């Protein structure tokens, strides 16, 4: 059909042009040509008559017949001149050359005006006849007839006709072809441009000026904003219409991702096996990442690739290093990757936690970069890429890569599985471009991350910082409107996806009523039942603002001594990364400050700070959340902080107060918390006082609002949004592959 249309576009104009040539141009050229030749012959005949008139008149007067014949024969040598004749005054043909045609009589030419010519057709073809009177001393002697053969003119005319025909036909064909091609391509380009714009394709990546349809550029800009606004609107509507549960997440996987395989990669595994008194016990690590992703994985099934760091991990896996979890009712598998102590020291403790961790958190701890650590970081990322490749059942699984331990992994996976959908989520903040620029391997890290299809951060600020870093350090095409980066022929969408917790919380199912938890908590720490308790729950990490919160407790007791003996701050601190000097030192600082404050304000068995540096199982932690009056999250800098959300989630009695650092991502969502600057100790102490004295009705109002938000924006929605974006991306890529264009 396309071919027919194309040939019609070519044949039709060509036919019209040929018709015009055959019936208009050629007859016109023919008659013009004939006129030119006759005029040419007229001039030639006149010239000959002028030359011959004198000598011929003399010969006629002398009546020398023989000489006249000889003269005629000599003149006739001119090959164009066909014959000569002489008519006397009585119109008798007196002399003629040999080939003179006898059907051209003197009578016939009588009608010709003197010295004029005519063209007559004879059986041998057309003949040009000129009749000229010959005089001597003013007396007419007769008429000279010059006969020119015009058959050569016919031959020439026919040659010319064909020449003109071929020339014009050729020109017409070339012009038609060029016209058709130009029309075809420009129309196609224009239509494609408009179509693409209307469909929203390439709107996320504006056309370069030199690409086709530059006239659409101003229109494209407006359409782009419009499509984006509609897209955001649609996304929000789509999302908000779903009630986010494990079931709805599963449904998205099956409907939008056609049940495609989902792989998660993180350094920390959701369940670790340890030896304890010759028995193997299972431990859930203190990790926001794990508490967010574990419920997602239970909903999605699939495989979780992680470092096998437990002392008994090897005992429980099969020959492919797989183990089914959760241990009580397995729904998905962990694929454990084994690292040597040296690899762990370089990759995890070294580059990830002494380099990237302080680099990304503004906590005033200097990052340390060692090339030996970097080598291990590269090698371990390669090991995990290989593990993902081995686990992939198809060419294009959906791979969810987690955190700063794997900055290089997206690109390494992309090299092995070019059509995989890679979602990278960076759980910690991204610093501003200037701070990030101090990393010696900054370009490699950015290139690694740009292997992702989607790169997620908790907040828009972190997305913008990342895009600014790209702008400063790589030659990439950035579209800030659509928040996309195109690099090396591949596009990465950089979006905020604020992480959250599961809802409803699985740990609440086994919890006692709040009143009992209150009693239990106080019993556990040997406190009277009316003691007001502030609670902190974290890994022992210098970014968490633990020292600052102890100082705030101290300041509170200084400023309002009525709280002495009535208020205790319980700090649950899971040991973390303790082989790193800064963490070791920090642990010492925290213990020393707690001791110092307890010494200063402690009395009769009362200690204002109760520090417990040990691992707590999730069920224990939830009991603490439910038994406390105030929960403090005072991070100096934090991507999100899920402790804040867990505390709110745990309080189904709608009581309790959350004090939250303005430097934690969670403060953007949980605005009903008492938001503080952890560096401002007086303000912090005032917030503690406010929290401890807050009326129950106000606590309820604040808690209800925060719980509503977490219920709506739970972790299934977090994962679902990323997977829905991935599904849209995969759909678009499929269409692009079908039409033979790689999507950018
Ligand atoms: O905050 C970043 C993060 O990876 C969290 O997602 C997680 O809670 C924590 O660090 C775990 O740290 P680690 O695995 O080093 O104990």
Secondary structure tally, helices: 21
How many distinct beta strands?
Answer: 23
- Name the structural class: alpha/beta
Low-confidence stretches: 199-212
Order of strands side by side in the largest beta sheet?
10-11-9-6-12-13-14-17-16-15
C-alpha Rg (nearest Å): 49 Å
Bound molecules: 6-O-phosphono-beta-D-fructofuranose
**How can the largest sheet be summarized?**
10 strands, mixed
N-C termini distance = 30 Å
Proportion of beta-strand residues: 15-25%
Instruction: Tell me roughly what share of residues is in helical segments.
Output: 40-55%
Give the overall average pLDDT: 89
> What is the overall silhouette?
rod-shaped
Short description:
This protein has 744 residues and is an alpha/beta fold. It is 49% helix and 18% strand.
């Amino acid at each position: 059909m396309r071919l027919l249309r194309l040939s019609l576009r070519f044949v039709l104009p060509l036919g019209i042009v040929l018709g015009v040539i055959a019936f208009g141009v050629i007859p016109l050229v023919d008659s013009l040509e004939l006129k030119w030749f006759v005029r040419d012959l007229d001039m030639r005949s006149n010239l000959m008559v002028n030359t011959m008139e004198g000598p011929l008149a003399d010969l006629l007067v002398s009546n020398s017949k023989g000489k006249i014949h000889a003269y005629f024969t000599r003149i006739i040598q001119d090959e164009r001149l066909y014959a000569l004749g002489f008519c006397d005054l009585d119109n008798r043909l007196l002399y003629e050359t040999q080939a003179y045609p006898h059907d051209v009589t003197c009578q016939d030419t009588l009608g010709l005006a003197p010295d004029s010519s005519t063209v007559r057709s004879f059986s041998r073809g057309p003949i040009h006849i000129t009749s000229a009177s010959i005089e001597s001393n003013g007396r007419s002697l007769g008429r000279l007839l010059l006969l020119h053969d015009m058959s050569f003119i016919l031959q020439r005319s026919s040659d010319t006709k064909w020449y003109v025909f071929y020339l014009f036909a050729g020109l017409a064909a070339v012009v038609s072809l060029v016209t058709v091609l130009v029309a075809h391509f420009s129309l196609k380009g224009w239509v494609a441009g408009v179509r693409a714009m209307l469909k929203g394709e390439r709107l996320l990546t504006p056309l370069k000026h030199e690409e086709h349809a530059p006239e659409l550029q101003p229109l494209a800009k407006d359409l782009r904003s419009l499509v984006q606004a509609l897209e955001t609107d649609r996304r929000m509507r789509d999302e908000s219409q779903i009630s986010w549960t494990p079931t709805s997440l599963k449904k998205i996987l099956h409907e939008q991702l056609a049940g495609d395989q989902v792989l998660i990669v993180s350094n920390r595994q959701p369940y670790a096996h340890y030896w304890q008194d010759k028995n193997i016990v299972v431990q859930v690590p203190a990790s926001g990442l794990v508490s967010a992703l574990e419920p997602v994985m239970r909903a999605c099934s699939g495989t979780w690739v992680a470092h096998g760091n437990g002392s008994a991990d090897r005992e429980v896996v099969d020959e492919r290093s797989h183990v089914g979890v959760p241990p009580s009712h397995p729904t998905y598998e962990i694929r454990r990757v084994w690292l040597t102590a040296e690899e762990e020291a370089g990759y995890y403790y070294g580059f990830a936690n002494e380099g990237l961790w302080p680099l990304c958190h503004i906590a005033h701890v200097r990052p340390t970069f060692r090339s030996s650590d970097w080598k291990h970081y590269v090698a371990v990322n390669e090991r995990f890429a290989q593990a993902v490749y081995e686990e992939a059942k198809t060419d294009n699984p959906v791979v969810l890569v987690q955190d700063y331990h794997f900055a290089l992994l997206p690109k390494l996976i992309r090299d092995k599985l070019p059509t995989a959908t890679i979602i990278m989520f960076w759980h910690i903040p991204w610093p501003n471009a200037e701070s990030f620029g101090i990393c010696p391997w900054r370009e490699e890290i950015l290139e690694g991350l740009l292997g992702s299809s989607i790169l997620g951060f908790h907040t828009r600020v972190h997305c913008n910082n990342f895009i600014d870093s790209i702008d400063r350090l790589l030659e990439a095409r950035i579209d800030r409107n659509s928040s996309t980066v195109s690099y090396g022929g591949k596009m990465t969408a950089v979006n905020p996806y604020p992480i959250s917790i599961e809802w409803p919380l699985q740990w609440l199912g086994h919890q006692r009523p709040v009143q009992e938890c209150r009693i239990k908590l106080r019993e556990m720490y040997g406190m009277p039942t009316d003691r007001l308790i502030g609670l902190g729950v974290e890994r022992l990490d210098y970014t968490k603002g633990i020292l600052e919160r102890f100082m705030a407790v101290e300041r509170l007791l200084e400023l309002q001594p009525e709280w002495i003996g009535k208020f205790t701050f319980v700090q649950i601190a899971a040991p973390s990364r303790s082989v790193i000097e800064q963490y070791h030192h920090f642990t010492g600082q925290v213990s020393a400050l707690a001791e110092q404050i307890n010494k200063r304000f402690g009395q009769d068995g009362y200690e204002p700070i109760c520090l417990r540096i040990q691992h707590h199982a999730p069920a224990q932690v939830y009991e603490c959340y439910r038994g406390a009056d105030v929960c403090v999250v005072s991070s100096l800098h934090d991507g999100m902080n899920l402790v804040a959300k867990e505390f709110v989630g745990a309080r189904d009695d709608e009581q309790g107060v959350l004090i939250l650092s303005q430097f934690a991502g969670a403060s953007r969502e949980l605005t009903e918390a008492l938001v503080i600057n952890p560096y401002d100790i007086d303000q912090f102490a005032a917030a503690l006082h406010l929290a401890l004295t807050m009326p129950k009705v106000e606590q309820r109002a604040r808690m209800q609002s925060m719980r509503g938000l977490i219920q709506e924006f739970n972790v299934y929605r977090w994962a679902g949004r990323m997977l829905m974006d991935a599904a849209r991306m995969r759909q678009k890529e499929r269409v692009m592959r079908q039409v033979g264009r790689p999507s950018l």
